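seq/struct pair 1
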Amino acid sequence: MTRAALLIIMALVGVPLSAEAPEFDHGLFGDVGYEFHIFARLFEQEGTQVWNSEFVRRTISGRTVTVQLEGDSIVVLAKFTPYDQDGDTVMLVAQGQTWLSVQGTEGVRYRTAFKSLPLALGESLFFFPLGVHAAGQSSDSMNLELEVQLHKVIDRRNGVGSQEQ
């Protein structure tokens, strides 16, 4: 991914990624839900962070949270779905899709990944939608990193309080 294309992503996603999360509708979801904390970071080849954004999304077990980043020649779509498990662990289904227009051709590269894994509440999951670029690649290569953390949210109206792990 070239620097110019990723800088366009930074400009386009600045508003949606920093938007406030919708209020948690306890009447619809019940007493327990999940809160995703997602940190998006862009690194130059030598490891210097050049952009970041953070946002929060709330959901329930079985309902997907989607992150979409769009640029001039790229679309990155990441979907995360938590499923209740015993204790402080959820089964997280993660799907990533990337469409990249190849400069100088009319072709589009498509990559996809799908993984189900147990995740402890509060633990970080790292997702690299463009892959991780190795040393020695062109100097305009950049790495896009999504760090995902999941916390449990409990309805405060019942006197239980909020639990974040």
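seq/struct pair 2
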Amino acid sequence: MATEDEPDLLKIFWDHFFKAETGTYEKSTWLDLFLAEFLIRINCGADPKELIKFCPVSGVVTLVGCELLCGLHRVTSSVSHLATPLPMPTLDTPAPLDTPPTETPGNNS
């Protein structure tokens, strides 16, 4: 916890997070630091509303939510670029087999 003479780490992390460009590694890093410090203090028994009294609770929720959704979009977009859909089978093309046929034991003809 910060004393009167030293700045509050939570506020410092929040300020850097707030000023960083959306969707960047820098913003994600500041968010990680903010959330980690926030959770540590909550686990120690601090009141969440008192921890973020430097700004409206709705502002924190909105900005954190937007950043998390941006990260989720970034991940799903990169996955969709890597995974190309299989072509649709046509009536002229036989469907591929899921597994290759195997020989049964004792039937080597």
